[in-house]
Design a protein that fits this description.
This protein is of the alpha+beta class and 169 residues long. Helix content is 24%, strand content 25%. It folds into 3 domains: 40 residues, no CATH class; 75 residues, no CATH class; 33 residues, no CATH class. It is built from 3 helices and 9 strands; from the N terminus they run βββββββααββα. The longest helix has 30 residues. The structure holds flavin-adenine dinucleotide.
C-alpha cells in the first residue's frame, strides 16, 4: 500500500490496497480503513457512483448496455441510441437515463419528446410504404381483395382495400 499526495490537487492518493470501510468518531468522518488494516485520516471523502442502466427488459431484444467511460474510468452503462432515441434494433427507441447516464430531468424529458416524435414519424412512414405497396398491380393486398382502378395509361390511381374479403381469402 502506498499513500502519496496527488501533484495537481494535493489530495491523498492511495494505491495497492482497497478501502475496507469508512471510519468515524460517531459524529464526523475520521478516515478510511484499508484492507491491510492501515487507517488513512481524512477530512472529506468523495465517492464516484457508477450509474448502471436499468435495461434488463431490453436485453431479450438484443440491446445490451455499453460502458460509458471517462478516460479509463467507467462512469456507468447506457443503451446506445441516436439523438432521436433510435437504438440498433428497428422499432425500439430509448430515452432518458437508460440511454444517457448524464441526463437530468429536463434533458430526459426532452429526449422522451424527441423519441415520441421519431416514433410517430416512423409509424407514418410505415403506413405510407404499405399504402404505396398496395397500389402496385399484383400486390398481395390486391390479391387479397384490394381493388386497383387504373387510369387510361394503366397506372393505378385508386385503391379500395376490403378487409372482409382479405380475411376470407
Ligand atoms: C440521487 C439523484 C439525484 C438527482 N437529482 C436531480 C436533480 O436535482 N435535478 C435533475 O434534473 N435531475 C436529478 N437527477 C436525475 C433525474 O432523476 C433523472 O435524470 C431522471 O429521473 C431520468 O428520468 P427517466 O425517465 O429517464 O428515468 P427514471 O426517472 O429513473 O424513470 C424510469 C422508470 O422506469 C421504471 N422501470 C424500470 N424498469 C422497468 C420495467 N422493467 N418495467 C416497468 N417500469 C420500469 C422505473 O421504476 C422508473 O420509475 C437525480 C438522480 C439521482 C439518482
Amino acid at each position: 500500500m502506498k499513500v502519496s499526495p496527488c501533484l495537481c490537487t494535493g489530495l491523498a492518493r492511495i494505491r495497492g490496497s482497497p478501502v475496507a470501510r469508512v471510519e468515524s468518531d460517531g459524529v464526523r468522518l475520521t478516515g478510511v480503513r484499508l484492507t491491510g488494516g492501515t487507517l488513512v485520516a481524512l477530512d472529506a471523502q468523495v465517492v464516484a457512483p457508477r450509474l448502471t442502466a436499468n435495461a434488463g427488459l431490453l436485453e431479450p431484444l438484443g440491446l445490451k448496455p455499453a460502458e460509458v467511460r471517462m478516460g479509463s474510468h467507467v462512469l456507468g452503462t447506457q443503451v446506445e441510441a441516436d439523438r432521436a432515441g433510435a437504438t440498433g434494433v428497428p422499432g425500439v427507441w430509448a430515452a432518458g437515463n437508460v440511454a444517457d447516464i448524464q441526463a437530468q430531468v429536463i434533458t430526459a424529458a426532452a429526449a422522451g419528446l424527441a423519441a415520441g416524435a421519431a416514433i410517430n414519424a416512423d409509424l407514418a412512414a410505415e403506413d405510407a410504404r404499405r399504402a404505396a405497396s398496395a397500389r402496385q398491380p399484383g400486390s398481395k393486398a390486391r390479391r387479397e381483395g384490394t381493388e386497383v382502378a387504373a387510369d387510361p395509361g394503366g397506372r393505378p390511381r385508386a385503391v379500395a382495400y376490403n378487409p372482409i374479403v382479405s380475411r376470407q381469402a
